[in-house]
Amino acid sequence: MRIINTVAELQQQSDSWRSQGLRIGLVPTMGYFHEGHLALMRCAAGSSDRVVTTLFVNPTQFGPGEDLDAYPRDFVRDRQLAESVGVDILFCPEVDEMYGQESETRVVTGQLAKRLCGASRPGHFDGVVTIVTKLFLASKPHVAVFGQKDFQQLAIIRRMVDDLKFDIEIIGHPIVREADGLAMSSRNTYLDKDGRKAAVCLHESLCMAQAMYGAGPHPLAAAKVADLVARHIEQYPQCKVDYVAIVHNRTLEPVEICDENSHLVLAVRVNDKVRLIDNGPLATAN
Ligand code: AMP
């Protein structure tokens, strides 16, 4: 596995692979790898000939008072893990490489980014689409893999790829979970013992919502499902609901009556400081 720190070097490598007819797969990350990240890298390897993983804690997607400085980092471990799943290039630029002193151009999101996480993290998704655009231009991938864990982010990136006509296939990888159902996240390391136990309420409430939808009767009001979810989460004194919503799985518009396109999205603050997200379709296979 090769470590690359500059955009020019990565572009050169990608051009060379492209000229040999090789398909390039990209996995953008902020590092501190867990099984969720590694699953994305394996998925990229399965749908391309060469895998580029990027490791960059992107400052423009953090708001004032958020955890940019505290964000967990372990380069040595990340390098070993990426290599172990067959990544060809680990791209780890410095902030100056991605945002030079005079950098001022940004990609701007639209309606999809205004609600849910966008409402509590203003500017966050503009930072995300700006860095993703830069990473696309640096790595020139044929396919890029993102996690369904960040459901709104995935929808916004798909929208951007359509809007800007990027010739890149976007794959949304299913959420990878801990044994008790908690969605894996680098931010789970912030949880203390009690917080970690309580954090299972996100997945529990998702399962309850799916069971409620499965049992009916229909039509079923989305407000009823959202209320069940919020009440379950609030039973845990460590947890505070940031948002609970039932939305259309593509437009992310709130729905009134649940149907097979309805998706539960939720964000919960644990111990007042760790903000966790989860999501899932109301209609499940069984
Ligand atoms: P991050 O390093 O948190 O920015 O995440 C990098 C990529 O990994 C994003 O596309 C995330 O959606 C994805 N990801 C993070 N956690 C998970 C998970 N538990 N399951 C699936 N994908 C994930």
Quick overview of this protein structure:
With 286 residues, this protein is α/β, with parallel strands linked by helices. It is 37% helix and 19% strand.
Describe this structure in words.
The protein has 286 residues and is of the alpha/beta class. 37% of the residues lie in helices and 19% in strands. It is built from ten helices and nine strands. The protein has helices at residues 7-19, 35-46, 75-84, 95-98, 117-120, 124-139, 151-163, 193-198, 201-215, 222-234, and strands at 2-4, 24-29, 50-55, 89-91, 143-147, 169-173, 239-248, 262-270, 274-281. Strands 1-4-3-2-5-6 form a six-stranded parallel sheet, sandwiched between helices. β5 (143-147), α7 (151-163) and β6 form a beta-alpha-beta unit. The protein binds adenosine monophosphate.
